[in-house]
Sequence to fold (795 residues):
Amino acid sequence: MKQFWKSMLKSPSGVIGLVILVLAISVAVFGPMLFPNSPWRMVQRPFLPPFTLSTVPLGTDALGRDVFAGMIFGARVSLLVGLVSTLVALIVGMPIGAVAGYFGGRVDDALMRFTEFFQTIPSFALAIVLVAILQPSIYSIVTSIALVSWPPVARLVRGEVLSLRTREYVQAAVVTGQSHTWIILREILPNALSPVIVLASLMVATAILLESSLSFLGLGDPNLISWGYMVGAGRTVIRQAWWITVFPGVAILISVLGLNLIGEGLNDALNPRLSREGR
Amino acid sequence: MPKRVLLGLLLACGLTAPTLAQEPKTGGVVNAVIQPEPPGLMLALVQNGPTQMVSGNIFEGLLRYSPKLEPQPELAESWSVSEDAKTYTFKLRKGVTWHDGKPFTAADVLFSVEMLKQTHARARNNLAQVDKVEAPDDYTVVFTLKQPFGPFLGIFEVGSMPMVPKHLYEGTDFKTNPYNNAPVGTGPFMFREWQKGSYIRLVKNPNYHEKGKPYLDEIYWQIIPDAAARSVAYETGKVDVLPGGSVENFDVPRLSKLKDTCVTGAGWEFFSPLAWLWLNNRQGPLADKRVRQAIMFAIDRDFAKDVIWNGLGKVATGPSASTIKYYTDDVPKYAYDPAKAKALLKEAGYKGEKIRLLPLAYGETWQRWGEAVKQNLMDVGINIETIATDVAGGNQKIGDWDYDIAFTYLYQYGDPALGVGRNYVSSAIAKGQVFNNVEGYSNPEIDKLFADGAIATPDSKRKEIYEKAQKILVEDVPVAWMLELQFPTIMRCKVKNLITTGIGVNDGFKDAWLDK
Fold:
């Protein structure tokens, strides 16, 4: 563990990513405490440019709502959707991949064909359809993002398990008569975890982008403000008021960038042999 | 004496106004946006807004209506009403021909009435009081009513009762008649071609019955599906006229400021779209009148007008738009007053039950309006959950009464008997349909007032009845009236005289001319 943090902190991208993530999370957690008012409240005159009033530092949108407050509350929705949907995707994808890789044969075939069924449909199109059918709400959005993002997890885990199950220590466990569940959970998965963690960090970023795209298209939860919604709502007035779209857009950019940097840092830290120094 | 001075002033205005106006010039082509692409152009079969906007220039009705909704001659050059208000005699204009050269006569009117009864739901309803229609000669038509029907002279507008050529439609299957795709009317413009998804082209009718008109040579109705692209098309000069509702509201101020651009909200007096929130009177907290009144007090309607509609329109005072006959503002008032709303909610014992709000899926403006209203209601403590739907899904929910609050807007057609009553009388409660009394408001007194009002004579009696009905309705708040909408028409200033009637662009190209 100490080794992990050491190499994580040694990679500059990992550090930058971590800083961004910690900042974003603290904004999402503590920000709304500083803004007791709903971000939907009309507080000032509409289309107020940024940096003119200290009470609304980033200006107001088409209805006079505080862009800064919207970004703070939006962070909460974006990060929550990103983390929860990734978690759900992992919970679905890991067992499928592990079982397929471990048992092989027909089980593998069946599970992988099932996975490919999802992979052949463009994920964003599928997400749109799912949200439209289920009616837009935070639950349907998380569900649909999770549903379109688990197949890569399953494929990755399967590949790792396939190579691990031929290792001697696994065979030793089989010989000593351990149950399959025990072997998968205790012997194989822990060793397959590092690439999954790297993938997960990138999946959070993808999920944030997916949620933003859905909200941009007007398929967000109408009761919650999110960055994608703000960009979508401001898009049509971009010629009159650039700030309504630019600030939340930058927020999406920075948080997705941060998560990608973390992914890179994790990759370096968890696979020392693959890291640049080793090469 | 003062009376005479006033009369003199009026006369002076009336006399000087035309001489001040410029002399119309002939010639020129106008490009206008039509949004969305109409499903068809045969006005007797299809009554969508865009159909009427194009076909109102191809077809004509017996009458036209001024912005004050006074009847004006069109195919009928004069009309008279009998003493008992049951017989209406129309004298038709002579020398009118269809676009194919055949003369227009009283036989066409009789045929149109019969055909519209089969194909045009609103016309059928409007003609319900008609006992018989007769043509004593080729240029006279007599409508005999079962009983006096006050708004009768209001049903002859081109969209409500277009005149159809008998010689092309008689004995055919109306729905599959080939002339539906190349309509033949008596109007100032003739149909020439329709490139689906691109444009509809109308050309001048050289034999039009009003000498010298129309002034324009051609009209191109451009079909541009994307709202932003429509704005750009105007900016780049591809189109000259953006009829009401064809660009998003937030683009209106920007486009209005462009050089040589004129904007007007006129031309919607006959339709007078009125926006309101349907409140489901049947169930939950909204069954309590005080909660409904609280909603009226809680919503900042001036904000909606100034910010969301860019100052266009007017805050509604009740069930009638101010342009509708017998409108009165002598009704209970609901100014923006959150404190009063809170007090009323408390009195009604509202405990934060969840209330569902359905915005109207008609684009950005309505989306923003839904958000603003939700915030207004949340601010006074009403627990609102917004339900996102598309247009069809929303209609279905509303028709099935599966909603609490829902946005809508409806046309009013000039007279309370034609456009207002249908939303409040209990006979108009019909599950599965929208645009009737979906709120489930039922009040025998209102039922009686609207029933009496439709057939009462003289006018002063109707006025009394409808004013009373408005007072009762505004007190009861069956729905929460928001705004009298105005759909601004944006056009180049060189397009003159486009909007001269109560339906504006919908029959306006007859008088329009280009100042080159």
